[in-house]
Amino acid sequence: MGRKDAIKLGMAVCGLGAAAAVLLASGNVARPTAVSDPRPLHGLCTDCGHHFRIEYQDYRKVIEDRREQSARHEPGGQLPGRRPVVLTCPQCMKPSALIADRCHEHDVYFPKYLADGARGRCPRCKPIE
């Protein structure tokens, strides 16, 4: 690339940068909005075995409530480690339900993540060797 081409490329980059700065300063840039997942999540109670549906918005509210609670007790307001969010089972009313995945082969729901943070798996599928 010649010197003239490098200068032209530099000017084009500067022009694009200036245009982006003007758009950001004017506030006319479309900001990402919170997208709610229309698909409901599934929960599974580890005590009574009850399978239920939970709307994504309700699940996000539980997470935000837990984050606010932890902010009072832990620096940074983060939940410690990668542990699954425990939900209250609507049937037995115990805080022992976890988000569930479905095994399409056996049509069985199982916890997506276990209490220790490990990935859950279908109880009927063969163990991975």
Using only CA atoms, what is the Rg?
Answer: 24 Å
Report the β-strand fraction as a percent range.
15-25%
Output the number of helix runs.
2
**Strand tally, please?**
4
| Cα distance spanning the termini | 55 Å
| Sheet with most strands | 4 strands, antiparallel
How many domains? The number is 2
Strand ordering within the main sheet: 2-1-3-4
**pLDDT averaged residue by residue:** 78
How would you describe the shape? Answer: elongated
Helix and strand sequence: HEEHEE
Helix content estimate = 25-40%
Secondary structure class reads alpha+beta
The low-pLDDT segments are none
Structural overview:
This protein has 129 residues and is α+β, with helices and mostly antiparallel strands. Helices cover 33% and strands 16% of the residues. It has two domains: 1-29; 41-111, no CATH class. A hairpin with a 4-residue loop joins strand 3 (97-103) and strand 4.
Give a quick summary of the entry:
With 129 residues, the protein is an alpha+beta fold. 33% of the residues lie in helices and 16% in strands. The model has no long low-confidence stretch (mean pLDDT 78).
